[in-house]
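Note to self: the last two entries modelled the partners one at a time, which told us nothing about the interface. This time every component goes in together.
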Amino acid sequence: MTRYMSLYWLFLLQRLKALMEYRASFILGATSTIIWQGSSIAAVWVVMQNVPSLNGWNYDEVLMVYGIITLAKSINHMFADNLWTVGRVYIRAGGFDRFLVRPIDPLFHLLADRFCQDGVGNFIVGLALVVKASVDLDITWTPLMVAMLAVGVISGGFIFIALNLITCVSSFWIIDSVPITRLVFDNHLFAQYPLSIYPKAISILLTWVIPYGFASFYPASYLLGREMGNLAWVSPLIAAFLMFIGYRFWQFGLKYYSGTGS
Amino acid sequence: MQTLQRRVSVYGALLAMIPKMFMAYQLWFWAGLVMNVISMSILYFFWNAVYAESGVISGLAREQTINYILLAFFFMPLASNDLVWEFGSNLREGLMVHHLLRPVNFQAMNYVQQFGAVLTRVTLQIPILLLGVFLFGLKIPTDLMTWLAFLVSALLGFTVMFFFTWFLACFTFYTTEIWGLGVLIEGMTFFLSGALVPLAMMPEWLRGIVLSVPFAQALAVPIGLLSGITPLGDAPRLWLIQIAWIIGMWIISTLFFRVAVRKITVQGG
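The predicted structure of the combined assembly is written out below.
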């Protein structure tokens, strides 16, 4: 474990050195996500100037939900973005074989190979939204609530990673796994808003099947003292379960991997 | 025997590649449909929740707003073009000079190409329109005059955005930074075109800002006519405004291009 942690640190340093060579692109990468998120948030702001609440959630409460999922997503974006490109970039070009001959876990190598700077923008946006919402809502933070925020965001991040891991394994058979990953990943867009605005079927889907709700709605409900908030304590279990499935499935896929011959 | 076995496995692998290649495109098609259904569901349920407590917002009823938003979602390709990326790849590969030397007007050539791209994109989106009709009760207008007013306004709006993006793309001659500029324009288009919120719901000052930049001309104006939010009688006035935008944008983009083209920094190739 310590070996892997120090290895990750070395990978990260190398990556940062490379990124700093192109400083302008680094900053643009991080700000591009801020611009996109800014557009969506501006739209929510405009709408909520006109109505007092979204199904009983006021503007700042909606921002809390949006902020928490953006933070969780940023963890996936910064540290596991290579799950998107494993098929297109590594397997198709044959670069993946490099990971298999090294004396470290191939999955670890894949993830450590590229820290994605664009995710920093999401982290900043998410943090700013949570801070803004909690100041305007006058939330008094107890240690338990701080713990819940951390648990929610980190478990949420692992839920994102695990779902991308499970779907990216398909690249061992079909090379380009991006459409399959997108199919599942895009469902997180539902969870940017309180799940209570959707029909029952969708909120069940986002809770028990593609559980992005645990990366947003449930932790936010806990922090805002709403019903169902206590369900948020389940999120680490869900994240651990999905990671377990994901890793086993990854190993299963790896056994079938035969390269593309390039 | 062994060579035969080897051959079977080699040719077998080659054979197996073909369905994979076909499937890749099929997968993208179906994944694209599902992704669009997800986006439309979110828009639909979000706006339903917005209207849960009030029947009319800024003069717009629930059905009107949802119809506007879904139509704007479908016609989103109208508001964007690939000029920045086009300029970028021309610069990167040193093709700009070739294009300028051709006995064809460079700007006119690009206009036709971008127009073709938008037409193709909108056509490929038709399954999404049908899903909108069946799943979310999207109402497609049947009145011929409405469509005519929309088509004229859409063409004018596309032209406004073409010249405006042309103007912005000239900055790549100085900065050689393409990706950042492209993403910046896309992100701004998302909000300023009126794709996410009808302009009527914006506070006065914000609407002033949005209407002082060209993005809304390409989406909010034509979709306003198509969805019936804007009365048809307003169409001629709106067309004139769009034509004024075109003239203004055409002048500044042509002037800027003339100055900027001397600055071309070719990145190689």
